[in-house]
User: Which sequence fits this backbone?
């Protein structure tokens, strides 16, 4: 196991460019917008524990705690940079309400205290431990950001109760949580506090999963929450994709903390199964709304794609953990794929609204056709982002992701520095200072300057998408990384990953993409919106031999592309001889996939005929 | 209105070739096989009316009467040629049981007598009038074949009751039947007996439909059985496709009998809507299993295609009627399309088993994937024909179609003879004798000899698929027909409709066929089965510039085709640069669509990438 240390986002200061813009909007717009929607829906008010039957305040839902926990975690990340940010007070008020309303025995869950106390630890799918997991993550973040340990104390009391109920008395009606999350949270807490009890509890929940039959949720079988097999025997990803990737992240964490090679081997197999058979080109996963789940291999429909925003975030978390235990550039590649595509497609460019589902194709006409909906079985995803959802896991997952994106750039060990992502920043790593300058993904030029690292090695990920690159220094290639010896106190190298328009073909085994290609430039996947074109995406065939034009768009803060294509005339009746179909040359305009559906309802497609 | 007289199949003797073979198999195998299955399932036994609660004989279903009625109709057609065919006795026994068990007041329906007498005329969707319609058709056929009028007397008594209940007392719980059929049957009976009461009752049911809100069936709205609008206002086909096409057939019949131009105009619009927007290239209609229904325009998915065998037969019936009131070759084109493709795909080559649904694509792997089924919402059609279905409308519909296929070849009026289909036969038409010699659809050479027709005109349909043909005589072209003056008592012409392999493209508005083409040769649609090829249909792209080879196959009694194609190698991972995909030249073997699924489970596709 080649273990690296993560370099936390708080060691990294992102200076400008693509991400800086988004981080600022998150801090100034999104986190407020999410707060407003959470207040409007009663999620904050619920922390007062004053709902009673018949009262006119909204009835708490059992996953509301987790929504607010993720919001507190987001605020904590923001406080790291701006300790006096105005949201601090609101986060502290919530923590104070938690202190006040925590049960005597340490239990804390709004729904199971004010609505259905009789259900405490009765229903495996009621998200109690999931909510605790998110409170733990918030507690760690809040403590690291502010030194305020009150939330940590609250969760610690609750964790002690959980140890008693689940490990000692075994008095709960289930052994492992129906929705994973607490496992990775506990290991995160263990890394902060070094108390083995957290690691042991995480290990208990991870190891017990799938050992014996447990309560099923109402609609799904045991694979829905990865309980069909002991985790070490799982080689195929199954079930709810967010739950799955949270579990796999925790498995990677546990493998790292305990040097568990068997567990690492399972993680590798699961990672391969996702990325080689069950992942959209955008890094979206979980193709079906039925169970928000992984289905069978190569089943990646475009218009009904579920590809939940949270699932891309969870896949990114899994990949990001793997990069630090199994040195291979493919993990950083998947982090890159998700963060430039399937994650940020989940938020509007103005930072105010969200997609839960991220389809790869929209045919607006289908949305007025009842039979299409029936045919697809699944719902067609919505075509406009919304400010809030009943199940609002994605918005605060987005805010915590954006506020901590700097944490995915580097890793280190005692003698090496690893650059996984190309984001302009300054970082302090094990006594060295690293500066990255780049306009990535506008272009692939990257300058890395390092101070005080004489004798260390610099590992720089060579993106899998790039076949044409230059590096200003001698290097060796190890597992997809360019490895460069750092010389002198002021070392500098320049890399240039040529960003050309690439036409990507999908495996023939994915039936949805037969005869089609996707267009990428650097890590960014492109799509065609009707908004920019006089014709529908299904009318055209790309001319892949033509010379595409790349130009920068201020609106998208990214490149847009113009391509030649042929448009088939469609006035030949239902069936006609092939020779009757005339083609005309047209120009097609493509935009970054992450920017789709920002300019009103529009048809859209990633996969285009060629 | 250009009214022609149909030339009934009994005036036509089919001599050999493609159809003769099938007619013989129907007479010698299929009609027995259907009888055996109907006996095994209790459908014949039910006519003894001896089912009681708790008895061990199968409980009759309310549509069983119609299954057996269609079987009697089939037997009648066979008796026309072979009056002493061994099935005559069995048909007569059924008729005798009907005589014995008909209610005093004329009512006859097994289910509503022995199982649920309290439901008589209560439930619009219980198929009582539908069953009567099929008994009327059987009665007419049996009388015409044998002169035996007993079944006609039975149905006549029942019809009088229906007139009393529906038109005079109006005491039924509905006004018009939930499943159309009786309307066209009554007009057929009117043509035999010339009694206006039958025409008036048909007109009543046709005209009342959609005039006011009626009982809905449990799952569907009023368009399911075409009750959403008065029929003259219907311009868009909707709902259950068999019901729809039976209604449209009756509308065409009524328009013809009453010179109703407004009704004819509605028929034209409905025919256009089907054939220009909602029909598979095979002549299959009703693309969704939900309601066995037409959906929205251009919604023609291949793998979940419902395209019920009965619906293609019903479309053929509608087109066949239209050809005699609205002279235009497109009606004969649609008859041809259905009879060489979407109808006969419904029966196995050995004549023993049936498809209810006729998909245009099978991906065998999908059938083991639960999630694919869920995704499609609809069931994937079965991949092997079955001997009987619970709802077994298609098998006896097939037997009556095959036994009477000669009735679709000709029409006439006092001075002209019309040839719509190219089937080798002898016919007696208004005192003239017509002989057709052809190997169609093996090739397009047709020799037509006419005796005793001096001074008449011969109209020969020029198939829409044919752009390259020769006719040995001068002709004028009228509405898609070559019109030739008959000279002399022994007149003969030769036509040659060149049968070349054609690549057919579908409108771009049909999303399922994007970037694909279908292969036809003459009227026959081809498909690719895995059985004949070393690769799956989704791995290849046809080379439409190559020179296809046509060869005759004894097995299919039709041509098969070999084509050049490119096969994409599929070992490039999930996503790869387009340039990484290598192609190899392969030969693809295609078989007639009607012959698919006769050699074990196999993937299959009509629409292939090019």
Assistant:
């Amino acid at each position: 196991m080649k273990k690296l240390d993560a370099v936390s986002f708080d060691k990294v200061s992102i200076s400008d460019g693509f991400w800086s813009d988004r981080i600022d909007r998150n801090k100034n717009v999104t986190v407020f917008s999410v707060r407003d929607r959470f207040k409007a829906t009663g999620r904050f008010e619920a922390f007062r524990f004053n709902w009673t039957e018949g009262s006119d305040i909204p009835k708490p839902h059992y996953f509301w705690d987790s929504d607010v926990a993720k919001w507190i975690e987001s605020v904590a990340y923001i406080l790291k940079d701006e300790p006096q940010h105005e949201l601090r007070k609101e986060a502290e008020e919530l923590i104070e309400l938690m202190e006040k309303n925590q049960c005597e025995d340490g239990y804390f869950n709004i729904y199971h205290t004010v609505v259905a106390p009789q259900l405490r630890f009765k229903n495996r799918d009621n998200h109690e431990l999931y909510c605790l997991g998110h409170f733990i993550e918030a507690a760690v973040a809040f403590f690291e950001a502010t030194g305020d340990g009150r939330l940590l104390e609250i969760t610690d009391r609750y964790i002690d109760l959980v140890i008693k109920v689940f490990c000692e008395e075994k008095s709960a009606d289930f052994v492992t949580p129906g929705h994973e999350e607490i496992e990775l949270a506990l290991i995160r807490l263990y890394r902060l506090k070094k108390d083995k009890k957290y690691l042991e509890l995480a290990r208990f929940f991870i190891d017990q999963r799938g050992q014996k039959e447990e309560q099923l949720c109402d609609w799904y079988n045991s694979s829905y929450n990865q309980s069909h097999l002991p985790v070490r025997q799982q080689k195929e990803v199954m079930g709810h994709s967010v739950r799955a990737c949270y579990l796999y992240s925790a498995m990677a964490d546990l493998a790292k903390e305990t040097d568990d090679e068997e567990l690492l081997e399972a993680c590798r197999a699961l990672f391969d199964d996702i990325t080689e058979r069950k992942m959209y080109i955008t890094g979206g996963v979980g193709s079906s709304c039925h169970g928000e789940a992984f289905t069978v291999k190569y089943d990646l429909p475009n218009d009904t794609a579920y590809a939940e925003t949270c699932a891309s975030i969870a896949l990114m978390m899994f990949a990001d953990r793997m990069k630090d235990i199994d040195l291979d550039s493919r993990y950083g590649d998947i982090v890159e794929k998700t963060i430039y595509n399937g994650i940020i497609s989940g938020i509007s460019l103005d930072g105010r609204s969200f997609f839960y589902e991220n389809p790869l194709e929209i045919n607006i006409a289908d949305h007025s056709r009842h039979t299409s909906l029936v045919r697809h079985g699944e719902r067609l995803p919505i075509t406009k982002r919304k400010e809030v959802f009943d199940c609002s896991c994605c918005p605060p997952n987005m805010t915590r992701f954006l506020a901590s994106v700097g944490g995915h750039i580097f890793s280190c060990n005692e003698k090496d520095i690893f650059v996984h992502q190309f984001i302009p920043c300054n970082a302090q790593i094990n006594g060295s200072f690293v500066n990255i300058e780049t306009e990535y993904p506008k272009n692939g030029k990257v300058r890395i300057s390092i101070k005080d690292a004489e004798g260390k090695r610099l590992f720089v990920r060579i993106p899998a998408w790039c076949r044409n690159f230059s590096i200003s220094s001698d290097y060796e290639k190890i597992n997809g990384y360019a490895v460069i010896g750092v010389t002198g106190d002021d070392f500098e190298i320049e890399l240039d990953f040529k960003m050309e328009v690439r036409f990507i073909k999908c495996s023939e085994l994915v039936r949805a993409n037969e005869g089609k290609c996707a267009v990428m430039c650097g890590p960014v996947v492109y799509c065609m919106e009707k908004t920019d074109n006089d014709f529908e995406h299904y009318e055209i065939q790309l001319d892949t031999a033509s010379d595409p034009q790349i130009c920068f768009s201020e609106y998208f803060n990214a490149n847009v592309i113009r391509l030649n294509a042929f448009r088939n005339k469609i006035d030949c009746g239902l069936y006609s001889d092939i020779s009757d179909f005339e083609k005309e040359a047209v120009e097609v305009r493509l935009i970054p996939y992450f920017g789709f559906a920002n300019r009103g309802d529009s048809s859209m497609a990633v996969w285009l005929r060629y």
In short: Chain A has 14 helices and 25 strands.
